[in-house]
Amino acid sequence: MRAHIVIKNIDKLYTLKGPNRPRVKDEMRKVGLINNGIVAIEDDKIIHVGQGELPEGIEVDENTIFIDGRNKVVTPGLVDSHTHLVHGGSRENELAMKLKGAKYLDILAAGGGIHSTVKATKNATFQELYNQAKKSLDRMLSFGVTTVEAKSGYGLDDFDTEIKQMEVARKLNEDHPVDVVSTFMGAHAIPASYKDKPEAFIQRIKDEMIPQVAERGLAKFCDVFCEKGVFSVEQTRDILETAKRWGLLPKVHADEIESLGGAELAAEVGCISADHLVAASDRGIRMMAEKGVIGNLLPGTSFNLQSGKFADARKMIEEGVPVALSTDYNPGSCPTENMQLIMSFASIILKMTPEEVLTAATINGAASLKLEDKIGSIEEGKKADLVVFDAPNFEYIIYHFGINHTDKVIKGGRIVFEK
Ligand code: IZC
Ligand code: ZN
Q1: Is 114 in the pocket of ligand 1 (CB under 6 A)?
Q2: Which residue is closest in CA terms to ligand 1's atom 6?
Q3: Best residue for ligand 1 mutational test, from 82, 83, 84 (most atoms within 8 Å of Cβ)
Q4: What's the predicted TM-score (pTM) here?
Q5: pLDDT digits (tens, 9 = 90+) for 190-222
Q6: Nearest alpha-carbon partner for 285 in 238, 318, 252, 258
């Protein structure tokens, strides 16, 4: 084997070595730390992970790139497994309303919120959406993110706009170093024209949209905004069961604002992840733990919604829910691409330990996208997605918050970002 990249003398190499499945409870605190670590890469794969020098059998040549890991931290590439990456416009106009006490769901019910992004997305060309999303993806990469999930959901009944969003995500996946995993989320809001007949909209999603999304391979997952005044638990179940029959894997926006029973539903339907969970019930959390549904927590959204309410990460981890972390990057409730800031929030506000945060942002994020056998840890045979941070240890990255600690990002065995 011949290495074309070798990272040597790594002060703190966090491998996340362990089973290729979502990690729970104290597994979330085992981050596989190696001092004076070394990683060798051939093509797009990791071929050696260890300590000190390269073992016999791994050759180097004059073209091998050596990266000095002294005073550096190396982790698996971060996974941002819940974003609304592709959209038109931005909703900073909502800030003044929120400062005066307007609530997210009131703005939505009054025809703003998601509906204003639907207009902006509909009016944007493919190229405009592509350019805007690419800029965000570049930022995400700069913060150490190597895999991102991207939801549709800003076309709603305008299915062409839904398709346009998913095609932008697909093109970015082809063109951009960051891997983009697509989720169909036509059930993101009840469109104005179906206000008095939501069942008819749900019927269209089931009969027309899901089959086409599946047949055209436009998405891997299907997600629903299960929330008071949006989609009820029964409507969500109906949509996700249809999605499953078409081979789309279910995800759900659950108990973000009101406690509706979204966590329980996620367990019953067998969702890969239930996301938000700020108002999840104790029973729902226990059911998720039993079924191994990942709790994907989005503390940046709680922060930005100014509700003062955050998901109970400690309870979820203690009950055995595998916890992941994401930005929820979107133009309304969480306009940031900064995964490092989200990791700081998770520790400082959700009281997750640095080790739990790292697990949540890597292997458990990978599992939220059903990619845990390919990415999410630094192990032989896995894809060479790694971040070199200019930091003495991982704690420092989340402690010294709000800035970018990335030194280099290696994606699929190529250096794709350098400070
Ligand atoms: O555009 O408001 N929560 N969907 C559900 C979002 C936030 C995105 C948005
Ligand atoms: Zn979301």
Answers
A1: yes
A2: 333
A3: 84
A4: 0.98
A5: 999 999 999 999 999 999 999 999 999 999 999
A6: 318
